[in-house]
Structures are given as structure tokens and as C-alpha cells.
Amino acid sequence: MNVKRTSADLFAIVIMSFCVAAATEAAAEQLSSTNLIWDSMIKTTNIVSGEKEAHFTFAFTNVSSSNATILGVQTSCGCTTAQLPPLPWLIAPGTNGQIGIKVNIAVQSGTLSKTITVGTDKDSETLTVKIVIDPPPASAMSDTNRLQNQMIAQADRQAVFKADCASCHVKSIEGKYGKQLYDSVCGVCHEAGHRAAMVPDLHKLTMPTDEHFWRTWISYGRQGSLMPAFAKTENGPLTDMQITTLATYLNAAIPSR
Asked: Which residue, of 58, 78, 222, 257, has the fewest CB within 10 Å?
């Protein structure tokens, strides 16, 4: 059966052919500019304050049918260096390789972000490394210091958020929620091997508990005990969101008896 095509049909066919050709060309350009496929473009590591270096390894594969050549590597600052073979580095089709990154640490806290730009004969790629510097682990407390701190807390249960005590009970809460917040703040006392007699084992409470129970205790503490009030409205360090996530975690992690 013969089908008579109108000028509109022919115009549509021409436009469709043009779009297909353009898409094919774009796909080819995309492939040629990304011959090297990386295991990750961003890598993060945690180190303890005081460490001098952070190390990363980026792996790649040449997924094209032609050679790729790494011509140069440029880092965002002099403290970041790349370890790789002499340049130019020829990467044959289907083969892989690695680039090592070393960052010299000059600060004691915070999060560092560095970039590494890898230039090839096809295009360039920018890799990113992030270093989160954690505070050093707290040194073991002597029995004498532990007793002194308990006496201070009995006189003022909010004392844990003041002076030297704040280094353990306040600085470690920033940006933490739920279990991570519990491990950093609550566990210091409630999970401690040398837990004071006045500090209860939360896993052995005999009273019914729910989210409201945990939220109330966390927010307002308990008069006549070592339990401070953590809510900001009570001169504590925790936001409403932190308290809510902490109560939710405790309600799930410690079933009511």
C-alpha cells in the first residue's frame, strides 16, 4: 500500500533524523571526554587531631577503545601532593591504574577539603578529598579526679557544661544526633566502666519508658542527682532537634520494661 507523505510528515522526519544524529554525536563526545572512569570522585577520611598526614587512593579504568594519556595533575594547594608514574602516563584501552594523594595536616580541628585536577589528552577531571579531624581520645581519669568531679556535679549538676568539663560534655555534641549523640555524650557516664553509683544503668531501668519519658529526662534532668538538664532552655547544650532524635533512639534501643 502506498502512503502519500505530506510536507509536514517529511519535515517531521527531517527533524527526527537531526535529533537522533545530534544525540549520537553528543553521546560520542561524552564517551571521548570520559575515557577514564574513577572508582569515586570524592573520598572522605577521619583522622585524630595531631596526625600529620592523610592518605587517599583513587583508582581508574580506561573504558574506551583508544589510548588515554594523563598529561598533568594540579592540586588546590601545596600541602596536597599526588603520587603517580612519570608523565606523560599512557593508559591503554581496558587497563587501569591508581593515583595516590597525600595531604599534610597543618590544623588541629575541623574539616579540610582539597581538590586534585587530572588533565588528560581528552579532557580533565577534578577529584575531591575531605579530611574530618576528630578530637583526641580523652585520657583516662584517675579515681581522685573522678571523685572530685562527682562532688562538683552533686553541688551543681549543670557543672558538666562549664569550665574544663565542657571539653567532654559540650564540644563533642556539635552536628551529632541520635545514636552518635548518645555515644558521644550520654555513654560517657551511663556506659562507663567506672559508672558512679548515682548514675543508673539505662538498660536495667524497672520503670516504664517511652519517647516522652526520655525527652523529659534529657531536657530537664533530675534534681538531687548527677543528671543535668541538657535543653538549651535550661542552660544545657542540646537543641530541640537533638533531644528529639536522642529520645527516639533511646526508645528504640532500650525497650520499656
From this structure: 78
Count Cβ atoms below 10 Å from residue 129 Cβ, excluding itself. Answer: 23
Buried-exposed string 200-209: b where 16+ CB fall within 10 A, e elsewhere = bebeeeeeeb
First to last CA, the chain: 82
Domains of the chain: 36-134 (2.60.40.10), 143-253 (1.10.760)
Could you read off the pLDDT of 40-62 as tens digits, one per residue?
999 999 998 889 999 999 999 99
Which residues on neighbouring strands pair with residue 68, listed in sequence order?
91
Q: For the whole model, what pTM was predicted?
A: 0.48
CA distance 141 to 113: 35
Residue 106 to residue 80: CA distance in whole angstroms: 11
Burial class (CB in 10 A: 0-12, 13-18, 19+), 216: middle
